[in-house]
Structures are given as structure tokens and as C-alpha cells.
Write a structure and sequence with these properties.
7-stranded mixed beta sheet; disordered N terminus; alpha/beta; 26% helix; 825 residues; binds iron/sulfur cluster; binds FE2/S2 (inorganic) cluster
Length: 825
Amino acid sequence: MSEVQAVDNMVTISIDGTEYRAKEGEYILNAARANDVFIPAICYLTRCSPTLACRLCLVEADGKQVYACNAKVKEGMEITVDTPDILAERRAMMEVYDVNHPLQCGVCDQSGECELQNYTLELQVDSQSYSIQDTVRESTDWSSVLHYDAGLCIVCERCTTVCKDMIGDAAIKTVKRGGEALDKAWKDNMPKDAYSMWNKLQKSVIAPSNGTDSTNCSDCGECVAVCPVGALVSKDFVYSSNAWDLKRIPAVSAHSSDGFAIYYETKATSIEDRREKIFRVTNEWNFVSLDGSARFGYDFENRDVSKDEEAFKSAVEAVKKAESIRFNALISNEEALMLQTLKEKTGVKLYNPEVRAFQKFLKLYSDASGASLYNSSTNDAMKCDFVVSVGGALRNDSPGLKYAFNNIQKMNKGAGMYFHPVGDKLIPTFGKTVEMFTHKAGLEEAALYLLLDLFADEAKLPADVKEYIASFKSSETKTITEKVMKTVKEMVIDEESGEEKEVSKKVAEQVEKEITVDTNGLIDLLGGNSEKFMAGFDKMMKKKEKFVLMVGEDYYGHEKADNLAKLIVLLEQTANFEVVMNPPKSNALGVALICDLDDEAIGYTVGYNENGDFKLSALGTGDLDMPAFNQQEGTVTTLSKRVVPTNVALDYDGYVLNDVLSEVMATPKLTIDWTAHLPTSKGFKAVEFDSLVNSFDNAGNDNRGYALEVTTTEVEAPSVEKFDEKTALEGDIVYRCNPPRQFNDFSDKAHQIFEAFGLYASATRAEALGSKVEVVFENGSIVVDVITDDKMEGDIVALSDFKSAENVYELFGESRYKTVTIREV
Ligand code: SF4
Ligand code: SF4
Ligand code: FES
């Protein structure tokens, strides 16, 4: 090994005699993978903690046997993947995994992509040395989407690990199975790691953590994705297809703004029906974790559409006379550019209430910061060790940011603060140093002032801001009683000599003491307890170096959005916070950058997947059919500011938006011909669709498409305003917010997404409200079913907005909170 020194946090290691570069402090397994070197491993998941359940990754490093998923590289480390001892261990482990594993590969859902099959072959297991009586292990359904076959489970713990470390639900765990105890003779007669692994395997199965039969979790299906065998399968996929019959179409999840990379897996519907059908969605689970809408909300296509010429002519006429186009965030960048081009040509108004407030907020932020966009991303956020979430119901609004918030606690020894008017029981379970502030709606500025107080470098804060923050602080002197140990002397008679002697002893005494108690009114205003919080804050801050602020949709349509944007910029400038914003819904960032949106629709309106006088609809319910997102190619812009391509999974034989618009203005031939014309002035690149990459590399870098270019200019430091605590909302408050897994009419159309449109409330509030209510706003009312969300806390109720026909945006206007009257019906 040459004496190459560590440079740029990289070290040089050798694996089986070949030198490689690796990130300092990286696990050997990850370093090997990043260099395309194969080390057998089952239980380890990149981005999660090593569990050492399988022990297959045993290697020799500098002469010692270590587990590659749990041992870190060092400069000059020499690693050998296979030694005779290690090969014997691995072979024994695979034999043990095969003990009593049901021989049902012919009908198993995992056959063809089963890691047990693959490693059995890889390690050439052609005979069995071990045996033990099997125990009955029942199959069971854990939820409406999860099917668990305990008989197939090899207790690798990948499912429990991903659920805890990445998803944050910790909804499943290993429990005792009551299997036969191993004969002690095995201990002396077989490789020791294989014995330990078998001992554990024989005793365990997986079950819901809550002790019931149901996981009551967010049904993300990530446990299904990571399961190496056929033990965890989505209920719907059971016995539906062989893996090798399915075609994989790389695409982007249509629903949240996370822009999750997915594969639609398709084949002919049946022997008789040769139309392609999506059978499931899969993902590169080491690098991207999906939510339930991305994984299960896939069958929303507009099927059996042909070219209806009459409807097409009417659509062209409708667009010609349109004064407004109303659309939403579920639209590609290319389609957004088409609409913007139409606006530039005809002056038509572009109305998109899902995106408009976000667009205005981005402008406020840019004006205050001089940066064209926020500076962080989901992946960057995952590298931080202190995360703060403001203005968003993380569990509902943004699965990707929720996972990051949780993962930071689990993997980076992180701390977190969560500010939101709707209490969420799940958030504090993410880590021991997570503080949740359930504050009144309307006090969002107070949250940012508190962050300035806690994190800003005082020397950088403007004097008026410092003074204002100081005005919330007070000190009082309190008298407390404290137990102190005192040494007292007393005379005792020595038992042996009978003489009197002096001895010392410690006695407890209650004494009164005066202490100074600092009170921070901002903390108390935000629903916290300043004394308690400040006592634990030092612990939260211990060894913290990288801070990220996640900003949610509540801020965008806020009455004081301007001040909020400026306060965020001040935090960036004085407290080194990086900022990531959650664009509300699918391609909101793309639309916000490409379209010049209007505040209202006027006159004759064409709706695109929205209500209008003439409706272009991919839901199959309009005047002219359009392709759904899984029938289109084009690009979307993710919350991480990447422009990523998505491909056609299912055929569509009708007209597309480009066809309609080509009758009204000059357009290129195909939708994807617009890709290279996306506005470079907004950070897009003049790149043809077909040149866009659509993959991750082995080190986990997201190489899909390209990153938007972010520009910065010098601007003056923002001048922020004080807030008025009297603007906090009182009374019955309703919040515009979808249940997890629902984002739009398309996720609602999918047959494995079950969350209904309605008014979601905490268990206590739902009980008090009854089953159906009328929610009366200033400008109208809506009658809805009351649905319990047992992770919600407090009295604020959440009204879904995912059904365009319900016009919920009209009731709320830009704000997500309204004071309403709620009547039982
Ligand atoms: S269900 Fe699958 S992922 Fe979970 S422990 Fe069993 S084999 Fe591993
Ligand atoms: S579906 Fe998701 S939340 Fe539910 S148990 Fe599996 S990983 Fe956990
Ligand atoms: S991958 Fe290292 S112990 Fe399983």
C-alpha cells in the first residue's frame, strides 16, 4: 500500500490488492459499493443504522475480521473480502438461512429477484448441514396494503430498520417467535457467526410494534421494498406477476413535490386483454424512500382514449376564446411552458391557486436574499445535525422532508425543532432531542424570532432586532428549597473501647436558596415552557454544526409573508441556516418558475384537470381527454431543484395539450421538443429531453436530469418588522391540509389509496364533532364527513383539498387557516 495521505476527506484503501479512494469515516461496505466492488451483505441499508443481523458482510481489514457494514475505512486500510474462514462462515450462514425456508420459489412473489436465492447461488450452497424442527408461522395482513408471510421471513430486520431510521413510524419490530431452542452442540460444531445468527433467527419474527394485529402506520410500503425475500409483499401484488415478466419504466412520482424516482412496472393486463397495465411501483430503496402515494397511487391513467375529433375542435375553439386557463401543479415543465407561451401570445390569464402563493413567496425570498432560489435540498438536509421545520404539517405535506427530519435524528445524532399549530404525536418520537411547539396560527413570525434568538450570531443582528428580541426576556429571582448534604460531628461511644469519640457524618438538610430564572416570552408565546426548554437546549446544541430550516406551505399565503421571507433571510445571514422550501404539490416549483401566474381567473375559463367552462381532463371526466401523468413524457422540477425526466408507462391514443395549442400558435411537434426551451433565465438548461440521464450512481448520487442553476446578486440586508401577537387566530380553526398519501384527484383515483376526502380531527375532537359537519366560511360552506386522525393533537381540524371538484381553494383563499363555524348536520 502506498503512503497516500488523506486529501479532501478522502482516504486510500485497498480491497483485494487494488487501491481505491473512499470518503473518510465511511463504512467499508459503502466505500466498496461506491467503487463498484461487491461485498456480500443482506441486512444493511444505506442511510440507516447497521443492525448486524445477517453477518454476511464479514471481511478482513488489516488482519482482523470485521463487519463491512459497521467498520469504517481508515487511511491505508487493507481489506480482503474472501478468506477461507470467511467463506466458511458465509456458506454456513446461507445454509442456516435455507433451513426450513419454504420451498415455494415456483409461486413466491419474490422469485427472480430474491436475495436468498441469489446468495444461495453466489455462495454455492448445494447441500445442507443443519436442521431443526420448524414452528408454525402464520401469514397475516398488517394493513390494507401490507401482507406478511412469517414463514418466508429471514429476520434480516431491514423492514424494521427502514421504518424506524428512515420513515419514522417505527411501526414494526422483532418479537419472540417461540421457536425450538438450538441444540447447544451446534455452538461448538459450526462457524460462530453463523451460529449466533441462527440462534437469533430461530427465536424471532416481525410484528406490529403496538402489540395489535395492525401497524396503523403511514402505509408507505418501504418495508415491502426492502424485504429481500417474499415475506413482505403488497397485498395487491400477491400472486399477480412474476418479476421477470415486468417491464421497468423509469419515472417520477406524480404526487408530492419530492419528485421521487420510481419505476412503473408493467405488462399486459391478462392473456385476453393485451393492454399494458402497471402492476406495481418499485424504487432504488438504498437511495430513495417513497411514500404511500408514490408507491401505491399509480393506476390513475386515462384508459381507452381515442382521438375524438369533434371534442378536439371544441377544445381548440375553447382555447381560442379563453380569457383564463385554470390548472394545477400536476403538469410537466413542458406543458407549463406551453401555457406560458400561450399567455405571451394571447394574454390569457393563467390561474393556478395551488402554486400562486408559493410563486409570490419565492419572489419575496429572492428580493430579500438576492438568491434566485433557496440554497438547500432534501439530500443536503439529510446531512445536517440540527433541523427546524416551520410552516408545514410535515407528515402530511412532505414525505421526503419528514423522512429527512427523522433520519437526521437517527443517523446524525441530530436535534430538531418543529413549529406548527397542529400537534402531531409522531414528530416527538423521532428523537430524544426533538422539541415540538404547538403554537397558535398567526404566530409564525414569533417562531422565526425565537430561532434568531437561539441561533443567530448577535454581532450580526441589526440593533433593532436585538432590542426587540430582548424585550421578550425577563429575569426574576425565586426562592427555592434545595436538599444539601452537610457534614456534622457528633460524639459517640466506641463499642470496643467504651470511650467517647468524635465522628463525622453526612446528613441531608433542606435549605432555601435564591436563584435567577430567565424567562423567554417567545418560547411561552409559542406554547413552550421557557424554563424547561432552556434547561435542555445546551444538550440539543451539543456538537451541532450544520443547521437546516424546512419551510412549508403555511408561510406562502400568509398575511405577513413578506416579513416571514425577510426573517428567513436574516436567519440564513446571521445563523448559518440553510433553507429548503416545500413546494405545495407535484411540480409547483417548475410552474412557479416557468409561468407568469395571475391572482384570479376571469371570464371564459378552460380548466386543465380543474373546473372550467371547458374542461381538458386526464381524469376522463372532461370535454376533451388528456393523458394522465403516467402516460406522458416530459420533465418536472423537484423540491431539491432538480429537473428530472419522466417516461410513458402506459399507452395513450388521444390528443395531448401540445396538439390543442398547435392549432392556436406555433408549437414544436412533440411535447418533449419543448424541454430544451425551458427558460434558462430561471435556471433551466437548454438540454434536449433525450439527453437527460435518469439514474443514481453506486455512491447514491442522484444524477437524474440536471440541477437548476441558482444565481445570487448583492442586496441590502433585509429590514424586518415586529409582529403583532393579537393577529393570532382564535375560535374554531380549520386548516387546509390533506391526509398523508393524498395529494390530488389522481392519487384519489388509485385503488390502493384509501384516505377519504373529509375533515380530519384528533380523536377527541372527532368524537366531539360527530360524524358529519358543515364547515361555514365567510364566503361559503362545505358539508363533510369527520375522520379521525389519531396522530393529530389539539382542536384544529384539517380540511382536504385534493378533490378539485370541491373547490376548497376558493373557500380558503391563499391562507391555509381560517376561523370558521362548525355545525353538526
Ligand atoms: S419481513 Fe423481510 S425485511 Fe423484514 S425481517 Fe423478514 S425478511 Fe427481513
Ligand atoms: S408501510 Fe411504511 S410505515 Fe408501515 S410498517 Fe412498512 S415501512 Fe413502516
Ligand atoms: S450487511 Fe453487515 S451484518 Fe448484515
